[in-house]
Amino acid sequence: MSPLQAVLLCLGLCLEQVIQAQNCPLPKPSLQAHPSSLVPLENPVTIRCQGPPGVDLYRLEKLKSGKYNDQAVLHIPAMKKSFAGCYRCFYQNGTCWSLSSDKLELVATGVYDKPSLSAQPSPVVSPGGDVTLQCRSIYSFDQFALYKMGDTGPNKGPERWYRADFPIITVTAAHSGTYQCYSFSSRDPYLWSAPSDPLELVVRGNSVTPSQLPRGTPTSVTEPSRNITIFPEGSSSPTGLMHPYYTKGNLVRICLGAVILILLAGLLAEDWHSRKKPLLHRVRAVHRPLPTLPQTQKVCQDRGRPDGHDHGP
């Protein structure tokens, strides 16, 4: 292969890598727990990572533990405290890794006795009125979570020890429903109590109905500013990998550096070949036999007459 062909081949490979790098990272997968991410002790649960069709490899990781499995599904036949934690997943196609999925907080419930839930001043409220849902525990927990059946996530209120208040300002018909609360400690954020007994919140009257609410109106029972995130963030790359993918800039620099090195090697090879041919020619010329001297030159070496006879003095 000539130096020019080697350079063209390297350029083609580099362009292929650059095009591939432009498609990295791949879109993030989804990660869900079935039937729920709140799992009573000894109950089964399945964690599933879902990416596009034809994925080469899945990686399911439990944060803070350093443990991961190269699989898309994790089936837990009986929930234990050790399974509780924060999970995420990735997938790989070729040399490209995807972005991380949204984190899944798998919580073990029933670890502690249930708290109590009450409505102040009453669980029956008129539209436009105010009500406060109070979650109380006999233990000195500093974290509480309130769930409304049908909502996708909890509202957390670390207001004070032993209890938390969840005020609902300007009640509407959308706030009516069944509520439960949990208590836990910030030291073990994935080990929760059993749920409280259900509390039914009734909104009297029809001044505002759910169909009259603007589309996208939230049904959370606290203002957004009162919500907190208590779960720690994890690292940004899959465990066990130095890095899931090269950045585009670094890959381009590597390719350009390889091309320059090959070009220099080609130039040196061409220069070496061009110098080698004249050198060999000169060496062969030096070792050729000398031509035979003419006979006249040999006769000139005699110190006598040209006819070869010497004469006496």
From TrEMBL:
GO terms for molecular function: collagen binding; collagen receptor activity; protein tyrosine kinase binding. InterPro entries: Ig-like_dom_sf, Ig-like_fold, Ig-like_Receptors_ImmuneReg, Ig_sub. One of its GO terms (biological process) is immune response-regulating signaling pathway. Pfam families: Ig_3. SUPFAM superfamilies: Immunoglobulin. Residues 1-21 form the signal peptide. The chain crosses the membrane at residues 251-269. Residues 300-313 have a biased composition (Basic and acidic residues). Residues 292-313 are annotated as: Disordered. Keywords: Disulfide bond, Immunoglobulin domain, Membrane, Signal, Transmembrane, Transmembrane helix. Residues 34-109, 120-204 form the Immunoglobulin domain. GO terms for cellular component: cell surface; membrane raft; tetraspanin-enriched microdomain. The keyword Oxidoreductase does not apply. The keyword Amino-acid biosynthesis does not apply. This is Glycoprotein VI platelet. It comes from Rhinolophus ferrumequinum (Greater horseshoe bat).
